[in-house]
Specification:
By secondary structure, the chain is an alpha/beta fold. It is 23% helix and 26% strand. It has helices at residues 16-30, 45-54, 172-183, 190-193, 196-204, 249-261, 282-288, and strands spanning 3-7, 35-40, 59-64, 81-83, 137-147, 162-167, 208-215, 218-226, 232-240, 269-275, 292-302. The N and C termini lie far apart (46 Å).
């Protein structure tokens, strides 16, 4: 019997934690007899879910067209089966999809082979204020990179006045200060809108490491290493405050982060993802540091006001 899963989310997309949970669920289902996925044709979370499903050959995707008249936020996803909006979905502008449990016809599932992506939870991620002007929508290209061997070169000494200090169980206020200072120019917003209790639980997890870069006593960047998946480490967040860019601190902090990620002997894989909303040199920097690109995804993304 085919397993059916339905997904709905907001046009602001999923947080890294949500993407991780969804990716894990999809991988487990795809390792069996396959599954049928149903989602709405909506920018943001729906488009991300579509890309995650497409990474697995054992998926059949049925797309439900979004609410009638809401063409602006349709992602244009192409599935194995297209369905028109159900009556109840046409009444609500925010109904990006619908949960169904009907059978789909078998298809040649092997024709949809794409690199496996990591990272995405099946839940709504919030809703915009009623009456607010729509956020601009752009195409975002996400690149997934990894390395499977620890670095062979020694880490260079830190620049003068620079040190990295792990912030153990930092307060959400301090963390969001770093997050906004580093990610503000690049439209980071997941952790800004996350509930304080949820963010505090993540920061309290000993497997989540927040390493802060200090220069002359001032925090100028940070790297977040997520070790919650056994044998793997994700460089979940990385960057500098705008004032520190151009001082060659970024390459050194990246090299330090790579060495630190590989320090435990049980680590077998280090990975990171970056997108076209990040610094223009981010992808080249990761490649120069030894990461190898293994996948790419494209989706339409609404950009909230900073």
């Amino acid at each position: 019997m085919t397993t059916h899963i339905g997904f709905t989310g907001t046009r602001h997309g999923m947080t890294p934690e949500q993407r991780a949970a969804v990716a894990q669920l999809i991988a487990e289902l795809a390792s069996g007899v396959g599954f049928t996925a149903h989602h709405g044709d909506c920018v943001g979370a729906g488009a991300e879910f579509h890309d995650l499903c497409r990474a697995h050959a054992g998926s059949f995707i049925g797309i439900h067209r979004g609410p009638l008249g809401d063409v602006e936020h349709q992602a244009g996803c192409v599935g194995d089966e297209q369905r028109e909006p159900l009556p109840h979905a046409t009444c609500c502008r925010r109904s990006a999809g619908t949960w169904v449990n009907d059978r789909a016809n078998p298809v040649d599932r092997a024709r949809h082979r794409r690199p496996r992506h990591n990272r995405s939870m099946i839940e709504r991620t919030g809703s915009p204020d009623e009456g607010a002007a729509p956020d601009p929508v752009v195409e975002v290209v996400t690149s997934y990179l990894e390395m499977h061997a620890r670095p062979v070169t020694a880490l260079a000494p830190p620049p003068v006045g620079v040190q990295v200090v792990r912030a153990r169980n930092p307060s959400t206020r301090f963390y969001r200060y770093l997050y906004d200072a580093v990610g503000g120019p690049w439209h980071w917003y997941d952790r800004r809108h996350m509930a304080a209790e949820e963010l505090a639980a993540i920061l309290a997890d000993d497997a989540v490491e927040v390493h802060v870069l200090w220069k002359d006593g001032v925090p100028v960047g940070y790297a977040e290493l997520d070790r919650r998946s056994q044998g793997e480490v994700e460089l979940a967040y990385f960057g500098l405050v705008p004032e520190a860019i151009g001082q060659k601190l970024g390459p050194w902090l990246l090299a330090w982060s790579i060495h630190e990620a590989w320090r435990p002997h049980e680590v077998r894989r280090l990975w990171v993802h970056t997108c076209t909303l990040d610094h223009p040199s981010a992808l080249c920097g990761y490649l120069a540091a030894g990461f190898v690109k293994y996948g790419e995804a494209r989706h339409q993304q609404a950009i909230p006001a900073i």
